[in-house]
């Protein structure tokens, strides 16, 4: 099974040895995505809704670079640092998935940078591009 690295134009250099996404057999695996700018600085500090929007826009760019759309998303793994942000995250999240919702889970945990409030990893089935 050949695989292809998916790196949207303008992507920054990751903090660790990974790529933003991998395409294999019509499935896009999007790495855990944090609310980082191209220099790996946290954006929208203290604003869970804005961080969620930023993360989902990065995920969208990875999926679109691979030839898919957000409608192709089948699963999301969501990591938040505080349950107090759960409603804000869900409000933004619902806007990106207005139709049939993907399966998902959400857990509270610590993230790689203290100002990051959310991280999302995604799987999308785009078929053969």
TrEMBL record:
SUPFAM superfamilies: YjgF-like
Entry superkingdom: Bacteria
Reactions performed catalytically: (Z)-3-aminoacrylate + H2O + H(+) = 3-oxopropanoate + NH4(+)
GO BP field: nitrogen utilization; uracil catabolic process
Keyword Cytoplasm included in the entry's annotation: no
EC number: 3.5.-.-
InterPro entries reported in the protein's UniProt record: RidA_CS, RutC, RutC-like_sf, YjgF/YER057c/UK114
A GO MF term: deaminase activity
UniProt keyword list: Hydrolase
One Pfam family linked to the record: Ribonuc_L-PSP
One CC-aspect GO term: cytosol
NCBIfam families: RutC (TIGR03610)
Function noted in UniProt: Involved in pyrimidine catabolism. Catalyzes the deamination of 3-aminoacrylate to malonic semialdehyde, a reaction that can also occur spontaneously. RutC may facilitate the reaction and modulate the metabolic fitness, rather than catalyzing essential functions.
Family statement: Belongs to the RutC family.
The protein's name: 3-aminoacrylate deaminase RutC
Organism: Chimaeribacter californicus
